[in-house]
Design brief:
Oligomer: single chain
Distance between the termini: 15 Å
Shape: globular
Strand content: 15-25%
Structural class: alpha+beta
Number of strands: 6
Order of helices and strands: HHHEEHHEEEE
Strand order of the largest sheet: 2-1-4-3-5-6
Number of helices: 5
Length: 128
């Protein structure tokens, strides 16, 4: 079950990858490897209009650093403040609106937001 990764992959286009200086990966495994290689503390993204604390930034960095790509078929436990959504906003210079169990969650790149992606999720599925 890779609905989280499939949804992210489907919404990122060639222009997004150019921002990172990378080619578009051929598949979701390539996307995850790219994100892990570009991992950094998220300095330009707010979550629910709030900046993350230094400790929160370190925790999100670590979560991505230790993420095991081998487990992607078992699903992604999407967090209310999701480490990968934060990083996607940071490195692709975008913002994300995520309706999480009917609650709107806003990830905003405050430095430069070229576009906004929209996702929805419930207890078992993540989708565009």
């Amino acid at each position: 079950m890779t609905c989280y990764w499939d949804s992210l992959y489907s919404q990122l286009d060639l222009e997004d990858y150019k921002i990172t200086g990378s080619d578009k990966p051929n598949n979701i495994e390539g996307l995850i490897k790219l994100l892990k290689s570009k991992n950094k503390e998220v300095d330009n993204v707010t979550w629910q209009n709030e900046y993350l604390s230094s400790n929160e930034k370190k925790e999100h960095y670590t979560a991505i650093d230790v993420y095991d790509i081998k487990g992607i078929r078992d699903g992604h436990l999407t967090s209310v403040c999701d480490s990968f959504l934060l990083l996607v906003c940071e490195i692709f210079c975008i913002s994300i609106g995520h309706i999480f169990l009917n609650t709107p969650i806003k990830y905003k790149n405050v430095k430069m937001s070229r576009k906004c992606l929209s996702f929805r999720s419930d207890k078992g599925h993540f989708r565009v």
